[in-house]
């Protein structure tokens, strides 16, 4: 296929109708979308065009069999106003990992990054500049072949949308340690960013919220004994000055923020270990006063401090001070707007 992206811009941007200093992620969408079609065994016709409805056949296979995957990332602006992306190559790789698991075609990684760059450059006026804000980018792929029957589809769409986003959880969060429902099991699809994983999490998250919690803390599907991850975040604990985070056991999403936070913490001289973590270990550390900090990390939220973990059987309060987590949050945010040196080479200019 030709990877030249055809561009048809809107005559007038809607950005003036949106207060970028007061936006909530997911409600407003930018003027354009990137679209690419997979037919006859190859990706075709990459284009950036006006955001619009897409006619969908009622038998489109994604609607029935769930071949749908997505990514999430954020564009920011550097100090000179240049639009910036954070590790888009990692999102490209993860999308293809998800595609492989779900029997979907690979999307060329260079086209993925190029499409994001061109899309972000065109939508740069939609990037909010208030601290902690960004333009959320949502690349996704779904099966659009009209067919009823269980097999991989033969046609797909890959699309990128943009939605300006304010700072996510500015408050500390309470986690419900889920002991009835599970998110993922080894050999399942938990490692993939598959739409169905999120569908399965909706009802348990509603139950957790009804009990006064913000998010679900997922435990392992076997024994509800090991900590996995949180809603749309990976999780870190600091015990006696050292950090631990659950290892990528086969059912946890390999977060790009997670891998970046591990690098940042090690660079600052902290020991970080990826290993299985039992809930009882965290309870014990809390009881004996060695649990110092706990936080969730993910693109949508950045770093979210955790103030409480509990369920109907226990409540565990976390220390109020989060000095290292705050430092990591500030460093990551500063790198993303080029206020701090990008010594890891994570930032990609979108121009
Ligand atoms: C289930 C889940 N875990 C973890 C994360 C964090 O991943 P990332 O840091 O790449 O946003 C996300 C968000 O994408 C997620 O949906």
Q: Overview of this structure, please?
A:
The protein has 351 residues and is an alpha+beta fold. It folds into two domains: 162 residues, 2-Layer Sandwich (D-amino Acid Aminotransferase, Chain A, domain 1), CATH 3.30.470.10; 164 residues, Alpha-Beta Barrel (D-amino Acid Aminotransferase, Chain A, domain 2). 24% of the residues lie in helices and 29% in strands. It is built from seven helices and 18 strands. Strands 1, 2, 3, 4, 5, 6, 7, 8 and 18 form a nine-stranded mixed beta sheet that branches. Strands 9, 10, 11, 12, 13, 14, 15, 16 and 17 form a nine-stranded mixed beta sheet that branches. Strand 9, helix 4 and strand 10 form a beta-alpha-beta unit. Helix 2 crosses helix 3. The mean pLDDT is 95. Pyridoxal-5'-phosphate binds next to helix 5.
Describe the structure using short key phrases:
351 residues, alpha+beta, D-amino Acid Aminotransferase, Chain A, domain 1, D-amino Acid Aminotransferase, Chain A, domain 2, 9-stranded mixed beta sheet, 24% helix, 29% strand, binds pyridoxal-5'-phosphate, Branched-chain-amino-acid aminotransferase, Aminotrans_IV_CS
List the helices and strands and how they pair.
Layout (H helix, E strand, L loop, with lengths): L5 E2 L24 E8 L2 E9 L10 H5 L2 E3 L2 E5 L5 E4 L1 H14 L7 H14 L11 E10 L12 E10 L7 E5 L17 H16 L4 E5 L7 E4 L3 E6 L2 E4 L10 H12 L4 E3 L4 H9 L3 E8 L3 E9 L4 E3 L5 H14 L10 E3 L2
Parallel strand pairs: 1-3, 9-10, 9-16, 13-14
Antiparallel strand pairs: 2-3, 2-8, 4-7, 5-6, 5-7, 6-18, 7-8, 10-11, 12-13, 12-15, 15-16, 16-17
The structure holds pyridoxal-5'-phosphate.
Pyridoxal-5'-phosphate (PLP) binds next to helix 5.
Protein name: Branched-chain-amino-acid aminotransferase
Function: Acts on leucine, isoleucine and valine.
GO molecular function, one term: branched-chain-amino-acid transaminase activity
């Amino acid at each position: 296929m030709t990877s030249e992206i055809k561009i048809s811009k809107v005559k007038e941007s809607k950005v003036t109708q949106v207060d970028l200093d007061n936006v909530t992620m997911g409600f407003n969408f930018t003027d354009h979308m990137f679209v690419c079609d997979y037919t006859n065994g190859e990706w075709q016709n990459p284009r950036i065009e006006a955001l619009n409805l897409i006619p969908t056949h009622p038998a489109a296979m994604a609607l029935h069999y769930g071949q749908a995957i997505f990514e999430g990332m954020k564009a920011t602006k550097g100090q000179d106003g240049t639009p910036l992306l954070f590790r888009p190559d990692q999102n490209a790789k993860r999308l293809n990992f998800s595609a492989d698991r779900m029997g979907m075609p690979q999307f060329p990684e260079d086209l993925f990054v190029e499409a994001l760059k061109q899309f972000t450059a065109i939508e740069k006026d939609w990037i909010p500049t208030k601290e902690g804000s960004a333009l959320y980018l949502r690349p996704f792929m779904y099966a659009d072949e009209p067919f009823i029957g269980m097999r991989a589809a033969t046609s797909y769409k890959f699309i990128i949308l943009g939605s300006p986003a304010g700072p996510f959880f500015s408050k500390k969060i309470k986690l419900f340690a889920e002991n009835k429902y599970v998110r993922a099991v080894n050999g399942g699809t938990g490692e993939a960013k598959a739409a169905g994983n999120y569908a399965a999490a909706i009802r348990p998250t509603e139950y957790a919220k009804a009990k006064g919690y913000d998010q679900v803390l997922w435990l392992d599907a076997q024994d509800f004994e090991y900590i996995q991850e949180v809603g749309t975040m990976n999780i870190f604990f600091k015990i006696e000055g050292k950090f631990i985070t659950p290892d990528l056991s086969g059912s946890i999403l390999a977060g790009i923020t997670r891998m970046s936070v591990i690098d940042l913490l090690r660079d600052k001289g902290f020991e970080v270990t990826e290993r299985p973590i039992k809930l009882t270990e965290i309870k014990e550390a809390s009881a004996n006063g060695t649990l110092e900090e706990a936080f969730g990390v993910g693109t949508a939220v950045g770093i979210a401090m955790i103030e409480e973990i509990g369920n109907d059987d226990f409540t565990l309060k976390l220390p109020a001070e989060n000095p290292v987590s705050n430092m990591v949050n500030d460093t990551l945010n500063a790198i993303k707007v080029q206020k701090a040196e990008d010594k890891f080479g994570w930032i990609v200019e979108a121009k």
